[in-house]
Amino acid sequence: MHYAAATGDGAWVYLCDLGTDTIARHQVRPDGLAPAPARELRARPGAGPRHLVLTADGTLAAVAEELSNTVAVYALDEPAGERARASTLPRDWRGANTASAIRLHPNGELLYAANRGHDSIAVYRLRHAAPWLDPVGFIEVGGRAPRDIALTPDGAFLLAASQDDHFIRAWRIDPATGLAHAQGEPYPLASPACLCPLP
């Protein structure tokens, strides 16, 4: 297991299992999670689902697939399953890379996925109908191996944790484009791996 995300009502938890290429939905009980999943979504073989975000209405999940370097959109209502896929990398990139984290902007439209290797954040617009994902561009984070990214609750800033260069950096989001500009100086921190802004 690489990540767990609860639905807005707290009734369900979705688990990313990178090892089995599945996204499983478990019911939340008073004593913990139900041991057997109520539903399993199958990612493509070898994709490696690592991290996911749920839309506010609970109808879609956007998943960062670590090994295939893709963002996949899955419908959660019947008929459930994959609706779209897009690379997290530019077409001309040939180096090693693994996708790490994905975050959905509070506006429910802008989607951000981090790359370790290309050391960037891919930006998309998430739709609720085909084509589902519109690539916008890339943010160069200026540090190696962005292990995690996060958005401030007001949606004004994007934070990136560069694990191998040992710092966190803030980026001011341009609401018109979804892209961002570095804000201030990097904050030194040893091997940051997870970011969780507090309200």
Automatic annotation (TrEMBL):
What Pfam families does the database record attribute to this sequence? Lactonase (PF10282)
Report keywords, A-Z.
Answer: Carbohydrate metabolism, Glucose metabolism
Region forming the signal peptide: none
Q: Which SUPFAM superfamilies match?
A: C-terminal (heme d1) domain of cytochrome cd1-nitrite reductase
Would you identify the family this protein belongs to, as annotated? Belongs to the cycloisomerase 2 family.
Protein's recorded name: 6-phosphogluconolactonase
What's the source species' lineage?
Bacteria, Pseudomonadati, Pseudomonadota, Betaproteobacteria, Burkholderiales
